[in-house]
Amino acid sequence: MAKSYQPLNVNTDVTTTRTLLHEVIPLTGTIISGTYGVFPDEENIKNYTHGQFQSVYDYPYLSSSANHIFDLTLGIQSGSSLSASTNTQMAKKANMYNEYAQLLLGYDKAQNIEAFESDVNVADDDNQMQDCFFISLSRLLTKDQIKKGTFSIELGQGAFDNAHLSTITLTDTGSSETAGFALGRPGGDYAVLYDSTASLSTQIPTSSYGVIFYQAGVVVLSSSVFNTASGGGVITDFASGAITQTGAAPDTGPGRDASYMIATSSISGTCDALRHRIKNISFNNSTEINSTIYFCRMPVNQFNYSSNPTYTNASKIVVKNVASDLPVSYVTTIGLYNASNELLATAKLSEPLRKDPTNELTLRVRLDY
After folding, report:
1. Residues 188, 213: contact at Cβ < 8 Å?
2. Radius of gyration, CA atoms only, the chain
3. Does residue 294 fall inside a structural domain?
4. CA 233-238-244 angle, 5° bins
5. Quick check: is 274 in a domain?
6. What span, in angstroms and rounded, lies between the C-alpha atoms of 209 and 170?
7. Does some domain include residue 66?
8. 328 and 254 in a common domain
């Protein structure tokens, strides 16, 4: 317990700061599909009996070392041409779309749920994405938010060419207030995902295929990203329900495009197909550290005597050899007290600092939260 206290002036001795820390998060296609078992026996992929979404882990999900990476699902807007009630799991697909839209976009003035759009102005109701894939990234990876301008996802697109897929890379690079960036939605800030090979002048809306919500850590992909220019792109092998690990070409018969698969396949089957089309995902996360900094000042005429009971012996200072010598002490610990002199926090110095009437110390204490 301290025997003397030095009050802190909130105007001159206390300040606050905010620091952002960033990590690079790479997710390769081998982790997402193919590392732990061969489809359909992939040990790091967890499907649920409710069949509404699929979870991806970095290890077999039954392992205690497994970390959740992201969830996958899909949704269909009620106004979509694919919203026929006879389609597979149609009610669940509609509920998924409404749930994400309600959470991330909210309602319009008429109290209708907003629709996802491949631009920044959801109020104009154009460029709507009615059939969407949703990638909900784990909080373990995104931390407080995804750093703006760092996200990219590489997808297999179109038909197979000699057992290989052509690819498309979608990024939020170059997003701005006027070209694909928006603030203040219920789900936080979001940006449009563009084909990275397209020029900025042609990005709106012809080469935009989705949006990313930074704080929520949710990526919304339009199913149109898997269609070729003629609309005939494919995402799945309909004979088996998903693209095979061997790279066998999927069914390219009439109508076998992404929309057909979304309507006729289960959510889990569609998620399997989407995973096998993800080649890479990369982004930087952000961790916000708020700090209060206290400048603890020790004037020349204070804290020159130690509060340690061994500092004196028989009422004499043991570190003084001559009575006329200046008192001396060594600072090892700083205590932060409330107005009732109750100890709230302590800070330890890396090494003792000498304090006597000939010097003055100012120690900077940083409290992170």
Report:
1. yes
2. 30
3. no
4. 90
5. yes
6. 8
7. yes
8. no
Q: What are the φ/ψ torsions at residue 195 (nearest 5 degrees)?
A: -65, 120
- Domain of residue 313, residue span: 299-368
- 3-state secondary structure (DSSP) of residue 191: strand
What tokens does 35 get? 């590392």
Note whether 103 and 252 are same-domain residues. yes
Question: Could you tell me if residue 111 is inside a domain?
Answer: yes
CB 204, CB 119: distance < 8 Å: yes
Structural domain count, the chain:
2
Cβ atoms 153, 170 nearer than 8 A? yes
Question: What confidence tens digit (pLDDT) does each residue in 224-273 have?
Answer: 887 654 443 444 433 333 333 333 334 444 445 567 777 778 899 888 88
Q: Are residues 281 and 305 in the same domain?
A: no
pTM of the model: 0.78
Q: Which helix (H) or strand (E) holds 331?
A: strand 329-337
Could you report the per-residue pLDDT of 30-52, keeping only the tens digit for each?
A: 888 777 877 778 899 999 999 99
Cis geometry, peptide bond prior to residue 205 (ω within 30 degrees of 0):
yes
Both 110 and 68 in one domain: the answer is: yes
Nearest 5 degrees, angle CA 227-CA 231-CA 236? 45
Choose among 257, 249, 197: nearest CA to 233.
Answer: 257
Closest Cα to residue 220, out of 90, 69, 104?
A: 104
> Which of 239, 265, 287 marks a domain boundary?
287
